[in-house]
């Protein structure tokens, strides 16, 4: 119709190609662009239950529900570096305050059950001063939706915990070593996990004095999947490093530090000190 | 219209059509709305009422509410607590309930701090609303009449304001983010104000729709004041077919088209010059960022856009006449003043390339910065005008763009669905770019744009300020002190041919099919991948081959020819270099033309003794090329309907065939031989050949015929427009070079 008056075949063809909106409805938009498929469904159901701050819980089905794991790694200078490993969840700081959309939001950090921070990503630094008193403290991370309701499965909030120990020295020092999170896996069906540091299957005690390693470096054979705790005391500050697994932990001078991990890969791995460059032992994982 | 003018017009329309500009094939599927007309313009811009609200909306969770207002200033906190108490007693829990309770003009709804999801509006339509008889758009949603919108307000809208007059809706928080209306990508529009004259929106946020967050349709009088919209498939703010509008202190980001879209603003100044009595919509104090474009104005007529910031989009602002169905086309009379338009260099096409934009909107990650560009456009641009007239761009700060500050091209009328001949070249006139601060920020720091202007060359009365930096073309019509003053102006019916080809290639974008045209630098093509460079290179290879062969086989003895051929080689090399992005806006392209023109001129002189017809054609080509260089680098030649590049291109096609034949002939070199003349009258070549040559590629058969048969054609045609030396009545130079013809015997008759 639009081409009715267009003289010239090529022009007519082009007009047809161009689609042309002769007559007909108005068009407020441009080309079709993307699909504009409207979303459906809900983001769970609000429960009457609330968290300690008064935020309501938002119940979702266990399948596909958000999950979180927590590990607390001592920082070489101050406090701990908390690492949140999430599944079926992404951090959406940009839209905080908006409506709850499935699998999105942020986390709250609670120290001994009291909210101390909102966490917008997988890493968070917890300074030693955040812990009021020396001794053991329980850290909890809990997942919240953008609208500040707490994601929950079976009436329980989705959360994970870890414990850290604050020393009584002037600078935060002793701690019971880093946890690398729950290795017994997340709670089934996305249930909240409450990881306690699982006992090590094998603890290896090593002492470093100057360039002397006691016991003398040798090979330690372990089964794949075993949890290994390396408890190392060095007479000077150094860094412990497990090759292959690429795990490190600082060694404070004169005090034992423990590196616990699951030997989940087979092979021969050297354990060494970074500063003095000593090989402490070799792990043979079969 | 004389037939010649019509021919030129047809040609130019055809090629402008190639441009397609911002429009591409699937236009027919554009988002549709019921037919609407402009309001009659009898309304007025509403003013803010500061008295007590008539209706209140709040959520009932006191703990939540108190958390939200805890940090407010004391007075505001007290006011909110009082309003909350009132609201709990007699207010509404959802905005729609309050809107439905409006029973007279001039009421005010206050929304207390909170998150509004409008749950009762969310469910998909059922019953009669699921069975409305209405045409469907390409996406499946229905194009509803106003009556049907009334009948089923939530088929497409979270909050529907239909036919309410002078309604004011305001948030009572300390900031616009204290009241959030969230459509969660479950509705086309978060708020629709349809035929609701005098509506005043203030102090809230609306977000996450599959079209628009705040949509004003067919309204005479509206204000959008301190409102934030974000994360929409298309627009943050869309005000369509409306008049007496004011946007102020607004913000929008994360939209697949534009943050601010005064589409089809009332066309109240059509037919006027620069002086207008008023503007239909005023936009001021807004910031629009991280969208495809900050501002879009398809048929954005008579919009006054001043003191805004458009930054970190793919393009700062665009206005166009490239889409059908918008009342008020072609676009005209936008006025941009004192805007801060900078760093619009985002590249969101990557989200199309990697498939992110193929997901449903809710999963694309708009909140994390994904934008899905709905159409094709040149990223890195400050202000794009694709088919607009009488637009004023004055005193803006435009800096930090990786492509260009001002992008101007014409759009033929059929692209917008109008087929009348008289309209095909009716865009891209009288756009004035003057007094802008180009390449410097407000503090005066240097933040250059890579180029300041890209213009296809079409249209009349356009002008740019004299301190414009690198531009393509290198020389531009210059604005005088007063609006309307232009020196060096031109008035062409079509743009530069290579630019039109580029626009055509670039327009072949389809987000749903993930089609990103490979030859177009808008989508990241660089170097040899760019169609402009490919054209230049292909042309250079053909011309170089023909030129070298011609010299080797026919003119080796001529020093003039040797020097000129060397010049030609340099010129061709520069032409390829000048087609690349870094050099295209400088003097290199014109320098290349200068050298090529010199080549052809000298070559023509060298050829004259042996082959006068070819010689004169070559000279003509040389002259046109020099003219083209002049046109591009010194002064755009006025009065001509097409740039010299068009004729030059056509003649070059003829020349290539002719020269190839001359070079390929078996007659052996006849360097600087006695003037034996040739048969074909040059007038024939110039007058009759372009038609054939333009369409055909170089082919031995047609080439031979074209060259050798020229004499016959011209004789038959009676064309006698050749240069003076035409038709020296002597035999053909290299005999036997043209099988099946006996040129020379008839050509003498042509002159």
Automatic annotation (TrEMBL), chain A:
PROSITE patterns: PROKAR_LIPOPROTEIN. Residues 173-186 have a biased composition (Basic and acidic residues). Transmembrane segments: none annotated. Residues 163-200 are annotated as: Disordered. Gene3D superfamilies: Cupredoxins - blue copper proteins (2.60.40.420). InterPro entries: Cupredoxin. This is EfeO-type cupredoxin-like domain-containing protein. It comes from Streptomyces purpureus.
Automatic annotation (TrEMBL), chain B:
Residues 189-316 form the Right handed beta helix domain. Keywords: Membrane, Signal, Transmembrane, Transmembrane helix. It comes from the Bacteria. The chain crosses the membrane at residues 535-551, 560-581, 587-607, 619-640, 646-666. Pfam families: Beta_helix. Residues 1-24 form the signal peptide. Residues 711-732, 740-751 have a biased composition (Low complexity). Residues 667-751 are annotated as: Disordered. This is Right handed beta helix domain-containing protein.
């Amino acid at each position: 119709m639009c081409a009715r008056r267009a003289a010239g075949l090529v022009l007519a063809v082009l007009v047809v190609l161009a689609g042309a909106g002769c007559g007909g409805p108005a068009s407020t938009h441009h080309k079709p662009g993307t699909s504009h498929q409207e979303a459906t469904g809900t983001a769970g159901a609000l429960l009457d239950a609330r968290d300690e701050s008064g935020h309501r819980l938002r119940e979702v089905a266990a399948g596909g529900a958000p999950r979180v794991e927590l590990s607390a790694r001592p920082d070489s200078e101050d406090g701990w570096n908390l690492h949140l490993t999430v599944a079926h969840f992404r951090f959406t700081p940009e839209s905080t305050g908006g409506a709850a959309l499935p699998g999105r939001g942020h986390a709250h950090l609670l120290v001994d059950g009291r909210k101390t921070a909102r966490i917008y990503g997988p890493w968070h630094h917890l300074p030693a001063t955040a812990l009021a008193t020396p001794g053991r403290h329980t850290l909890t991370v809990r997942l919240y939706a953008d609208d500040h309701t707490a994601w929950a499965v079976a009436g329980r909030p989705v959360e994970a915990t870890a414990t850290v120990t604050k020393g009584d020295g002037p600078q935060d020092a002793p701690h019971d070593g880093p946890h690398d999170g729950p290795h017994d896996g997340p709670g089934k069906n996305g249930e909240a996990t409450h990881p306690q540091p699982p006992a090590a299957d094998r603890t290896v005690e090593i002492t470093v004095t100057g360039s002397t390693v006691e016991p003398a470096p040798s090979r330690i054979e372990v089964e794949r999947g075993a949890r290994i705790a390396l408890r190392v005391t060095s007479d000077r500050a150094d860094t412990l490093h497990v090759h292959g697994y690429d795990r490190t932990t600082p060694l404070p001078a004169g005090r034992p530090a423990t590196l616990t991990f699951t030997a989940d890969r087979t092979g021969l791995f050297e354990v060494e000190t970074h500063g003095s460059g000593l090989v402490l032992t070799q792990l043979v994982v079969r | 219209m004389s037939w010649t003018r019509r021919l030129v017009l047809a040609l130019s329309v055809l090629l402008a059509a190639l441009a397609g500009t911002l429009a591409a094939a699937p236009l027919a599927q554009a988002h549709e709305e019921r037919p609407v007309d402009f309001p009659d313009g009898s309304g007025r811009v509403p003013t803010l009422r500061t008295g007590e609200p008539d209706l209140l909306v709040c959520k009932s969770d006191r703990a939540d509410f108190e958390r939200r207002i805890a940090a407010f200033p004391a007075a505001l906190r007290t006011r909110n607590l009082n309003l909350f108490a009132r609201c709990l007693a007699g207010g509404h829990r959802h905005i729609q309930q309050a809107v439905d309770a409006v029973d007279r003009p001039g009421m005010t709804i206050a929304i207390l701090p909170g998150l509004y999801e409008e749950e009762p509006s969310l469910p998909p339509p059922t019953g009669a609303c699921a069975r409305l008889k209405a045409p469907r758009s390409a996406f499946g949603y229905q194009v509803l009449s106003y009556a049907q919108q009334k009948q089923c307000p939530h088929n497409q809208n979270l909050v529907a304001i239909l036919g309410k007059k002078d309604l004011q809706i305001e948030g009572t928080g300390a900031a616009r983010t204290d009241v959030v209306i969230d459509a969660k990508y479950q509705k086309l529009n978060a708020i629709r104000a349809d035929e609701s004259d005098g509506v005043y929106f203030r102090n809230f946020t609306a977000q996450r729709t599959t079209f628009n967050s705040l949509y004003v349709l067919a309204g005479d009088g509206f204000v959008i004041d301190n409102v934030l919209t974000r994360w929409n498939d298309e627009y943050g703010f869309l005000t369509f077919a409306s008049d007496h509008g004011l946007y102020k202190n607004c913000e929008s980001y994360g939209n697949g088209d534009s943050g601010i879209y005064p589409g089809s603003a009332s066309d109240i100044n059509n037919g006027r010059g620069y002086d207008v009595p008023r503007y239909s919509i005023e936009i001021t104090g807004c910031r629009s960022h991280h969208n495809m474009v900050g501002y879009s104005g398809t048929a954005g007529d008579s919009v006054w856009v001043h003191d805004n910031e458009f930054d970190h989009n793919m393009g700062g602002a665009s206005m166009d006449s490239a889409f059908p169905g918008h009342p008020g086309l072609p676009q005209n009379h936008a006025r941009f003043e004192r805007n801060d338009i900078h760093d619009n260099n985002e590249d969101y096409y990557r989200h199309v390339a990697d498939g992110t934009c193929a997901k449903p909107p809710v999963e694309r990650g708009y909140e994390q910065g994904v934008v899905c560009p709905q159409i094709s456009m040149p990223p890195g641009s400050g202000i794009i005008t694709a088919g607009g007239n009488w637009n004023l761009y004055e005193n803006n700060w435009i800096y930090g763009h990786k492509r260009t500050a001002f992008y101007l091209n014409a759009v033929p009328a059929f692209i917008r669905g109008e087929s009348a001949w008289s309209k095909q070249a009716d865009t891209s006139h009288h756009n004035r770019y003057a007094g802008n601060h180009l390449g410097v920020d407000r503090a005066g720091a240097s933040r250059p744009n890579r180029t300041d202007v890209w213009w296809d060359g079409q249209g009349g009365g356009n002008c740019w300020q004299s301190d414009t930096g690198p531009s393509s073309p290198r020389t531009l019509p210059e604005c005088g002190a007063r609006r309307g003053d232009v020196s060096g102006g031109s008035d062409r019916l079509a743009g530069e041919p290579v630019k039109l080809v580029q626009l055509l290639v670039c327009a072949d974008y389809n987000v749903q099919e993930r089609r990103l045209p490979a030859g177009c630098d808008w989508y990241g093509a660089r170097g040899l991948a760019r169609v402009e460079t490919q054209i230049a290179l292909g042309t250079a290879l053909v011309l170089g081959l023909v030129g070298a062969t011609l010299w080797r086989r026919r003119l080796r003895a001529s020093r003039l020819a040797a020097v000129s051929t060397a010049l030609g080689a340099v010129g061709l090399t520069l032409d390829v270099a000048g087609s690349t992005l870094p050099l295209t806006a400088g003097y290199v392209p014109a320098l290349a033309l200068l050298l090529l023109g010199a080549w052809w001129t000298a070559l023509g002189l060298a050829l004259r003794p042996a082959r006068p017809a070819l010689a004169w054609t070559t000279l003509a080509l040389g002259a046109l090329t020099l003219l083209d260089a002049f046109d591009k680098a010194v002064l755009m030649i006025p009065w001509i309907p097409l740039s010299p590049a068009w004729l030059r291109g056509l003649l070059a096609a003829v020349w290539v065939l002719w020269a190839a034949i001359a070079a390929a002939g078996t007659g052996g070199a006849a360097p600087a031989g006695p003037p034996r003349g040739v048969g074909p009258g040059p007038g024939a070549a110039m007058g009759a050949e372009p038609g054939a040559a333009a369409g055909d590629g170089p082919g031995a058969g047609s080439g031979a015929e074209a060259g050798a048969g020229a004499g016959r054609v011209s004789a038959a045609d009676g064309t006698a427009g050749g240069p003076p030396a035409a038709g020296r009545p002597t035999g053909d130079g290299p005999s036997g070079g043209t099988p099946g013809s006996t040129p020379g015997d008839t050509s003498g008759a042509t002159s």
